[in-house]
Amino acid sequence: MPFTPKPAAEQGTLAVGERLCNLDFLDTHGRPFSLYDNQFFGWPKVICLSRSAVEAEAQLVQLAAKVRDFGEREVHIIAVTRSSVEDNAAIAAQHRLPYPVLNDPSGALQQAAGLGDAAAPRLLFFSSILSFEQEFADPDPGAQVAAAFDRAHARFTLHNPQPASGIAPVLTVPQVLDPDHCRRLIDHWQHGAKLDNMVSSQTVKAQQKETTKVRGDVMLPIGSAESNELLAVMRRRLLPEVSKAFNFDVTRFEPFRVGCYDSADGGRFAPHRDNTTPVTAHRRYALVINLNTGDYEGGYLRLPEYGPQLLMLPRGGAVVFSCSLLHLATPVMKGRRFVVVGFFWAEEDQILFEQSHADKFPDGTSINLVP
Hints:
With 371 residues, the protein is α+β, with helices and mostly antiparallel strands. The protein is 26% helix and 24% strand. Helix 1 runs parallel beside helix 4 (141-158). The chain is elongated, with a radius of gyration of 23 Å.
């Protein structure tokens, strides 16, 4: 199925990690303009947002002077105002602005960013998938532009394109969970009932097997407040990316779990696949979200069938991959690594789940539908 971004009608308040909808902009010729056009989508963006082009004139001029520097760091510059198409065209021509200056006729982006009548122009930084990352609202226009450029430079340095001989077929999405949500899930683990080193086999649904898995899990029961909050975030920030990356629409899920790999116990997970037993055959995609990257050493995700790379997601970042892929978690050498783990599938796989879990759901399995 083709990728379809969410329509403008679904645009809500911008928050870090939330993706921008396909808003109805007009360019300086009055033509519809979409940030999801292939020419613009797929690269980070700095959007200069203002009520009028005149109010943002200082930022617009300074951005024009830096547009090449931003471009060398693979960041697009866009201006969005509530000015008329004609006024935008006039200021773009006056300063020969080398980037699009767009009219936001419905004010959708203005409203989402909280740009009220008294708000000054600001710069918004968006990721390559148009998820919101940061706002720059220093009263000094030059300071705004400098801060946005520093962000662009740091991001490019971190993600500087490099030749690769092999890449595992995984989806990575940063900032799925914000830092507060990560902290709360770790706290929930601290106070929850632990299931240590539990795996399934061909004959047993759950058994301890320390030679395979050294991780303590706390389950988030379906319907609990923690599960509902996590699923709501998944639906907004992650599942649309799964649909686009894998051409697959998730409709079912297993209870999420918060896990801890503790260096004191040699926390690790030996090479395995996630769908090789009768009770796991329904699983199509696995999810891992790092909750405290930077607080431990080791603890990498590795998919050895596709090369020696060690994958480390930033705090709150998610990775999704096929449950058929061989993968492992390398030992945590220092500290404790906290993660969220989950599994997704669709209706055609649900029959397998119902056959192997009928004893747990005597009243049916509609409980695990993704709403």
